[in-house]
Amino acid sequence: MTHEEAADIQSLTDLVRRFTLDEICPHINAWDEAETFPRSLYKRAADLGLMGLGYPEHLGGTPASQALRNAFSITMARYSGSGGVMASLFSHNIGMPPVLRYGSPALQQMAIPAVLRGEKIAALAITEPGGGSDVASLRCTAVRDGSDYVINGEKVFITSGMRADWITCAVRTGEAGSKGAGGVSMILVPGDSVGLSRTALNKMGWWCSDTAHLRFDNVRVPASNLLGEEGGGFKIIMTNFNGERVAMSAMALGFAQACYDEALDWSRQRKTFGAALVERQVIRHKLVDMQMRIQSTQAWLDAISARADAGDMSPDWVAQVCMLKNHATQTMQHCADQAVQILGGMGFMRGTKSERIYREVKVMMIGGGAEEVMKELAARQLGL
Fold this sequence. Notes:
There is one protein chain. 52% of the residues lie in helices and 15% in strands. By secondary structure, it is an alpha+beta fold. It folds into three domains: 3-116, Butyryl-Coa Dehydrogenase, subunit A, domain 1; 122-231, Butyryl-CoA Dehydrogenase, subunit A, domain 2 (Beta Barrel), CATH 2.40.110; 234-381, Butyryl-CoA Dehydrogenase, subunit A, domain 3. A four-stranded mixed β-sheet has the order 1-4-5-8. Strands 2-3-7-6 form a four-stranded antiparallel β-sheet, with no helix packed on it. The longest helix has 37 residues, at 233-269. It is globular. The protein starts with a helix and ends with a helix. The relative contact order is 0.11. The model has no long low-confidence stretch (mean pLDDT 94).
């Protein structure tokens, strides 16, 4: 990494930390209880350039390396301790990349700039009631009718699903009753489409994130909103998953660090039997175990990101991403568990970062591809 790149990362880290401490941390407990956060937060993040990080300048973004985007994700996760805020506030980072890579120039201009300005919200809709990681089993259909596609079906567990103005949706465009990856396409659905209905879902974690069950009842979408070629959606989805999994790994690392920070701070303040907790060998060893996992995750993330920035998207790289996603979320799980244990009764109380992160571990281990799916995909990419 060059001196200039390191300076850029430090500058971004400082900016994100200040934004998080000023705009998110004072309100996060109230937002969790309200199960939402103000829509104005999108605009405040956009005004600082955070919404456009990694997008081209002609669409209102700021090009950024994977290392720079990692620094952003780690920092916000570490200081906010809230997956719910990050999941919805930046849901466009899984919803808009397919539009950026495969949408027509006109479609890109119609959708992306307003999202990066914080004026519109974007979501990704893949999972259905009958299947999540098994993308090839999608049943939501899009049938061509003149200059439109008519969409029928359901999507579930959709982040930002209640408020999204744009929904990047996986649909089946093949022959009626067709199965497998060949008949899957991607299309951008306007959130105000007639026939689209939404139902809010209650969750174990990510309380302030709006998560929805979507229903499409003869929803008409212009054929010009198709992303890439008809039947080419499976590759688009798989490519998008790679970016999502790297971002989730960075977030998981930040949440692990948040747990470590809180546990260390508590162990220095809390006294038992006349001495601070941190003076107990068993507590110091717990903290060291947390650091071992944090440092190994950071090193692995750095290595994978350097390969991505160098243009390496080989099967081995994909396998590494899958394994990293498992390792990072397991690191998060371990650190959340140990932090709650060190905090004792306080760790069981609402309002601590560790308690919130403990509840949010499972969605990180399942979302973007469950552990078991990640292992099998890695095995195949490695030729096992």
